[in-house]
Amino acid sequence: MKLKILFSLCFIASLSAVYAQDLPTNPEPGKCYVKCITKDEFKEVQETIQSYPAYSSLEVIPATYKTVEETVLIKEESKKYVYVPAVYETIDVPYVKKENSNNLRVLPAAFGTDSRTFEIYPKTSGWEYRVLEDCPSINKEDCVAACFVEYPAQHRDISFTTLVSDAKTESVPVPEQTATYKKRVIKTPARMEEIIIPAEYTTIKRQVVDTPASTRTVNNPARQETVTKTVLVKKGGITTWEEVDCELLNPTALPIYYELASARLTAASKKTIDETLLPMLNEKPINIEIMSHTDSRGNDDYNMSLSQQRANAVVNYLVSKGISRNRLAAKGFGETRLTNRCSNGVDCSDAEHKRNRRTEFRILGN
After folding, report:
1. Domain match, 226 and 261 both
2. pTM of structure
3. What three-state secondary structure class fits 267?
């Protein structure tokens, strides 16, 4: 470090003989100064112009189709005639087997019984002689008694048959006698039957126009184009000397490390730029060079391109923060400036390779 400072001081001292008239006045020992010639100050002005007029165009809206199913006739309806024979059935037919008639039945005479009392002997009376049984006389006549006896009339009940009704006849009906016989009769007469042979259909699919083709008017607005112009705001050319850290005249490493095969700035890398480069560039009108490097892995040409992308990424980030691009230079060195032994074919750890994926910066004098 001391050698660098001494070299810088010696270099500045050697220049003092030639450019003594341009050196800063009242310099401080051990300080380094960068000669800055103020540049013309420009600003970008945007102007909107009409790059294409407004116009109308016709846009064809093609017809749209839809698929519909349709039933179509593939065989017409027809007829056929079929002879249907008569259908018979057997029935029982009743008939009178013997007609009804009347028979005569004889009703014999009817008799009854009756009785009648007849006097068969009249009432009589007279003298009767009786011999006493205990007559003591030998002469029976001595023992005869005359008695006047009266006999009542004698009657007799005689039964006889009486005619109640005389013989006669009465009519006795003789019912008819019925029977049945089997008879086959036509239940359904013979006929010719008409049979419809139905039509046959099938379903087809076809595309029909759903929306016919049409046109519509499209109003195309005028196209505006913004032209960015750079205009001179302040004329430069004024020489100034800016005090800087002598170390910053040499490449100074930034703690910005990249992922393998990537030029993306991480959030930590952006924070480093915000805390180191931005304050310096905003404070002094100096120019800086951004130098990016890769490790040795991968193709050499690819690494050279990748390192340039990494340097450009830092420059673009600074520009997005308001730093003029003409104050910044980006240079990629690929794997040509390794900080350790990890060159092609050397077995190194990821941490060792990571130290080579770095970005440096240095202050440029005008």
Report:
1. no
2. 0.39
3. helix
d(CA 106, CA 170): 6
CA atoms within 13 A on the CB side of 262: 9
Weakest-pLDDT range from 23-32, 138-147, 205-214, 243-252: 243-252
149 Cα distance to chain centroid: 150
**Could you tell me how far CA 158 lies from the centroid of its own chain?**
127
> What's the domain range around 230?
1-54+221-244
Give the three-class secondary structure for 311: helix
pLDDT in tens, 127-137: 877 776 777 77
Do 344 and 290 have their domain in common?
A: yes
> Quick one: tokens of 339?
């900080």
Find where tokens 């005249």 sit.
249
- Token readout for 109 is 């005479």
Q: Which two tokens stand for residue 81?
A: 């005639």
Segment of 82-91, 223-232, 244-253 carrying the highest mean pLDDT: 82-91
Left (φ > 0), alpha (ψ -120 to 50) or beta: where does 344 sit? beta
| Per-residue pLDDT, 7 | 36
